[in-house]
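<discrete_fold_record>
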Amino acid sequence: MAIVKMKKLRVIAMAGQRGDLLEGLLRLGCVEISEPDGKEQEWSALLRRGQSRLMSAKDDITQANTALAALKKYAQTKDGLFIQRRLVSENEFLGGETVEKARAVSRDIGEQLQALVRLQSEESRLLARQSSLLPWRSLDMPMELEGTENVLFRMCVCPGGTDTGAVKTELAAADAAAELYEISADKQQNYCLLVCGRADEASVMEVLRPHAFSVVSFQGLTGTAAENLQNLERQLQENRGAQEGAAAAIAAKGGEKELLQLYTDRLRAEEAREVNAERLLTDGTILFFEGWAPAEQMDGVQALLEKLGCAWEASDPTEEEIPEVPVQLKNNWFTKPLNMVTEMYSLPAYNNVDPNPLMAPFFILFYGIMMADMGYGLLMFLAGTIVSRKYRPKGTMGHMMGLMQLCGVSTFIMGAITGGFFGDFLTQVVKITTGGDFALPALFTPLNDTLMILVGAMALGLVQIITGMAISFIRKLRAGQMLDAFFEEVTWWIVFLGIGLMAAGVTNIVLYAGLALIVIGPLVTGQGFGKIMGIFGSLYNHVTGYFGDILSYARLMALMLAGSVIAQVFNTLGAIPNNIIIFLIISLAGNALNFALNLLGCYVHDLRLQCLEYFGKFYEDGGRPFRPLAMETKYVDITK
């Protein structure tokens, strides 16, 4: 397995071939059109970016997604945790037979949604008007009536704690022709009707102002408050009926869900095509673009370009172009799920190595060591297998399910070696039901052989670190860095070997030779005073680095022990009442919690060991992912 070799493409075609060219590249799904960067000065002076209908495609996608969301809400169409992909042919996917029908459905749902939004806004306005009129329901006076020739009628409000009796007394003391009638009250306000002579209006308002009275009016309303409330109730009923009709019209489109999903995926393909159309340079007569394509798929690219009569060339990337080359990893069923880890960290540089085959055995083994339970491993394998076969997830989710299957197998094997099946679940079941003793056979157990497991974990860590050093050694030799390869890797292999021989009581000479090389290395590769400082720097950095990294692998033992202990604690708690039903409830609940915690915890710690302790020895990241013009789908799988 390796990084896919790329070819640099340069293509010239007639502008009239643009549609057919983009359609053909979309079907191939293996050409990435580069973003124009202005480096080709002779072209940029003559050509301009191509036009596209990208904004229209984005609007269509938004409308289709809105329609799907509306079906989910009003037609109760559920996708579940995973999307059930269905198979469609390439011709069905790209054909135009269903596009117009899907567009019409999307448009109809959009119109009903707009009607719903309008009706809901109108309902809010009606409810607000209803709320403002309710306190005046008992006022048997037309709302438009403001008084007579000599008398004014004013509807007023004041704070809820106002003593209206005291206000009436003040009005009487002011010797004004006025009367205050309390219509209703709530916690916030008192609602009153003020009747006063027109000549006394100013003096009356002076009395009311200190009590925070304010005049309210209902412009445009005629008739009493009760009559208006009755009319509002009728309007609200009509409004809600219209809303129900619009919602029912949307729900009636529930059977078109799959059509809309296919349409949405088709629109995504159109969006990708339009994005790439803007990367083409043209003067209206010809078009030009640069891009990248995998060398192993150049036959298909060549056939398409020659069919369309294009002028083109493909070349290997130059040394200066290496940082720009997109990276695609070529892996098999065993290493492909590790793309999830690599992409989360960072893709390798184009001239580096594919880390997946180098990491897969360690990642899967370490995960199994940390989880180490047959029950948990079985659950992982079954979950990964069922989801992969039933839903066929793609991308990160697909990698996750594949990785769960592989780690589930590793976890089951390590559980068989350590005798764990949901901890000591079977032991407790036999004890409760029969009173006898039972234990699964085991080569070693986390509780009884902790020190051995710790030593074994650090030994595995040493193996992985030496593997990383070996990869670095080979890369340096290929790059002609002989001295660096010798003093950085070989020297410390000699030191490790010397420590092992000294610990075994064989000889100390190998260790002394390694220490001598540590001193000689900076003297040979350093310059000036840096030679002396390099000795101390090399010792400090490598001693703390290598041995600190090796100690990090103690987490393999720690998580194995923690998971085993937690499972056994819950099983023991469940067994205390000596009732099989109570035991099953407590044990299953506890093991479910332990499984969930370890499922994530083991992944995080395993990821750390790979990305820090292992990758740090040889890995150069910074690769840019290969993003060809292709049919990326969410709801369907396309078959040729």
In short: The mean pLDDT is 88. Residues 335 and 356 are 6 Å apart (CA to CA).
